[in-house]
Amino acid sequence: MTIYRYPDEDLQEFKELISNRLEAARKELLYLQGVITRKDETGTEDTENRYMSVEDGSGAMEREQLVQLASRQIQFMNHLEKALIRIENKTYGVCRVTGKLIEKARLRAVPHATLSIEAKKMMNTKSN
């Protein structure tokens, strides 16, 4: 049985890519958390609209959107951290369905991918 895995040099390249994306994601999350905190403290970022937003609920909607963005960012960071663990285990880049290597171009675009395009298509056809 052939064992598929990326060589250590490739794993190192992906580790750097993922680490950079994780760092950027952390900064984005801190920014979002800061905006949410400021909105909680003032109602909205500018005080003139504070009274209007109480009536129309736009402040609450905007806050909810920011919370959703922060939540997605946390989920994205979690996926990236799991990808780093797979790199350490030398299982990174192996499709969890087919066992074949996921294309490098796909991993560069979606570094936390665990499915090859082939597997993703198979799963989409089954769900339709």
From TrEMBL:
Zinc-finger is among the record's keywords: yes
Domain Zinc finger DksA/TraR C4-type: 91-119
Pfam families referenced in this protein's UniProt entry, alphabetically: zf-dskA_traR
One Gene Ontology molecular-function label: zinc ion binding
Protein keywords: Metal-binding, Zinc, Zinc-finger
Zinc finger (dksA C4-type) residue numbers: 95-119
Matches recorded under InterPro entries: Znf_DskA_TraR
Protein name: Molecular chaperone DnaK
